[in-house]
Amino acid sequence: MTDLFSVNGGLSFPISLREFGTQDKGVSPKGAQDQLSFITAYNLLKKPNSFQAIEMIYPSKIKANRDLLMVICGASYERTETDSQNIPYNRVCKLSKDENLEFKGTKKGFRTIVLAIAFEPDLQQLIGSKRSEKLDEFVNLNYQNNFIRVIKGPEYFILKDNAFFEQSWEISPNSSQMGLPLNGTNLDTQKVEMISQPVSDGTVQLSPGGPIVLMRHRQTVGGYPRVVNVIEPDISKLAQFAPGTKFRFKLVEPNEAFDIMNDLKKMI
Q1: Rg of the chain taking only CA atoms, in angstroms
Q2: What is the CATH number of the domain that holds 233?
Q3: Residue 2 has what pLDDT?
Q4: Last residue of a domain, one of 131, 158, 184
Q5: Does the keyword Glycosyltransferase apply (predicted)?
Q6: What percent of the chain has pLDDT over 70?
Q7: How distant, in Å, are the alpha carbons of 129, 160, 178 from that of 203?
Q8: 202, 101: one domain
Q9: Is pLDDT at 1 greater than 70 in this prediction?
């Protein structure tokens, strides 16, 4: 099948829906790092069976290979435009065949989601559909600080004091789709012997070199202590932090994390 749009330059990754059911074989569900932005775009286009999507880190030039409906979410640029129109974020827009889309100026955030479907006349009513005001409020409130909320992990007990939460951690330049190594002050911890154990999105492993936050393309087991786990909405927030960004962890109770996720599901 011909791509709905072509991507020229920059740095981007093709993405699709997450695929569960193979973690016992060592394969993670993968998918977009910023799942909140991806699901927002996917839902605005009414959960299409067929689509093309990328997660973009450095700006690419996009060319429509046919008439499209497109949603752009996540990291935003000062100007996102074609020759004939400015393209808003978090809203369904139409691009005509051979129209070129460019991202210009300063970027706010780190990863941009671009999701498109083929335009058909019966989809005309989707044009202009936008993210809900409640979701706008949630994102604006949650993203205005650099706190990442976590719950206790199975090996939380090895932390001897609150230094893990009292210091700022810096995302390493060696970060990848699999995980984010963090730079900070060494921690005083209890020694523990471990065999490899299951891990999940947002698991924070405490390696000899420092904490590592596991992201969407992680492994499925790990041999380092799992001291905390980032709550689901804040994994997407963390995906918008570029290498070099500093942040702090904030401990919440499991019931609070559950309530936050349930409230978010109602907004998407």
Answers
A1: 20
A2: 2.40.100.10
A3: 72
A4: 131
A5: no
A6: 100
A7: 35, 19, 11
A8: no
A9: no
Q: What is the count of structural domains for the chain?
A: 2
Q: How far is CA 14 from CA 5, 57, 81, 113, 114, in A?
A: 12, 12, 21, 10, 10
In terms of residue numbers, what domain contains 187? 147-267
- Number of CB atoms found within 10 A of residue 181's CB: 20
Encoding tokens for residue 113? 């989601």
Q: Are residues 11 and 104 in the same domain?
A: yes
In sequence order, the 6+-apart residues with CB closer than 8 A to the CB of 74 are 34, 37, 55, 109, 111, 112, 113, 240
Tell me the pLDDT tens digit for each residue of 61-79: 999 999 999 999 999 999 9
Residues making up the chain, counted from first to last:
268
Q: What is the pLDDT of residues 121-172, one digit of tens each?
A: 999 999 999 999 999 999 999 999 999 999 999 999 999 999 999 999 999 9
The pTM (predicted TM-score) of the whole model is: 0.95
